[in-house]
Amino acid sequence: MKIATALTGLLATLTMAAPVAEPEPEPEAEPSLIARGPGGTNYIQNYNSNLGAFSSNINAGTYSMYWDQGVNGDFVVGLGWTTGAARSITYSGTYTANGGSYLAVYGWVNSPQAEYYVVENYGNFNPCTGSGVTQLGSLSSDGGTYQVCTHTQVNQPSITGTSTFKQYFSVRQQKRSSGTVTMSNHFNFWSRSGFNPNNLNYQVVAVEAFSGTGHATMTVS
After folding, report:
1. Distance (Å, rounded) from C-alpha 28 to C-alpha 26?
2. Source organism's superkingdom (predicted)?
């Protein structure tokens, strides 16, 4: 069973224990739109219409998308920041999925390389119930309980090309499509298992779809 597809590049020009100290606060940059597909292709410039479509209003911090995937594929549309942080992220909107899809705060760590998801809602596949995952327990945050797990991707696409890297998932048990995610809580919990919160790449509120049908409209603030 597919856990997630690693996706590469950015589209600002654009183209899945011991607590640690939180990173110093940083000025909030304006969100940038991100869109990716199989192997890291840029769906802004090279969109595969039989996977779905999306539109955006970056100034308003919103995007909309739909998908109807009659063929295998994977794409992500999101809005966020070119550099991740232990920020609190507020999002609101609608999300409906029938099949394999996540609504999540999604990002990457540069070193040791890792991909992370705080899954707020999903279709019919919870990544922490997939094959090959290691359960890390549960986390209470932002009025809900998250199932936490890790998974290792071996020789898969990443932000540096094909590589082997760890994935970190927090999956909210009380699904929602609007709310606030306190990223420091997840970073601190994952840090017990080797996550490095101090060397972050991009960070977005994203919808990923890799099977089935669905639609979403999201505003990120």
Report:
1. 6
2. Eukaryota
Label residue 104 left, alpha or beta by phi (over 0 means left) and psi (-120 to 50 means alpha): beta
Cβ contact 46:26 at 8 Å: no
User: Which residue ranges form the domains of the chain, and what is each CATH number?
Assistant: 32-220 (2.60.120.180)
Whether residue 115 lies in the annotated active site? yes
In the set 22, 24, 26, 115, the catalytic residue is 115
Provide φ and ψ at 36, rounded to 5°. Answer: -140, 160
What is the average per-residue pLDDT within 78-98? Answer: 92
pLDDT digits (tens, 9 = 90+) for 112-128: 999 999 999 999 999 99
Tokens of 177: 């499509």
- Tell me whether residue 28 is one of the annotated catalytic residues: no
Is the torsion defined by CA of 90, 93, 96, 99 positive or negative? negative
Q: Does pLDDT of 21 surpass 70? A: no
* pTM for the predicted model, two decimal places: 0.80
Give the pLDDT confidence score for residue 54 in this predicted structure.
59
CB atoms within 10 A of CB 106: 26
State how far the Cα of 1 lies from the Cα of 23, in Å rounded to an integer.
Answer: 35
Selection from 23, 25, 18 nearest residue 194 by Cα? 18
User: Which residue in the list 24, 26, 28, 208 is annotated as catalytic?
Assistant: 208
The dihedral formed by the CA atoms of 117, 123, 129 and 134, expressed in degrees to the nearest 10: -10
